[in-house]
Amino acid sequence: MNPRTKKFLAIILLVAISSGVVITALVMLPSPVKHAITPGL
């Protein structure tokens, strides 16, 4: 595998991991907007 392909795969892997972390954080953390819409919860 040439260095250019390794670099490309590394970038794709980093983007996939970071986007997964961001999506997980957004889903798991309590949202202030959700609490503003439903104050009973």
* Percent helix: over 70%
Give the overall average pLDDT.
82
Q: How many strand units?
A: 0
- As a percent range, the share of strand residues is under 5%
Shape: rod-shaped
Helix tally equals 2
H/E element string? HH
Distance between the termini: 53 Å
The chain-level structural class is mainly alpha
Low-confidence stretches: none
Biggest β-sheet strands, sense, barrel: none
Q: What is the CA-atom radius of gyration, in angstroms?
A: 18 Å
Describe this structure in words.
With 41 residues, the protein is an all-alpha fold. Helix content is 78%, strand content 0%. The protein is built from two helices and no strands. It has helices at residues 3-28, 32-37. The longest helix has 26 residues, at 3-28.
Q: Can you summarize this structure?
A:
This protein has 41 residues and is an all-alpha fold.
Kindly list the characteristics that best describe this protein.
single chain; 41 residues; mainly alpha; 2 helices; rod-shaped
Question: What are the SSEs and their pairings?
Answer:
Layout: H1 3-28, H2 32-37
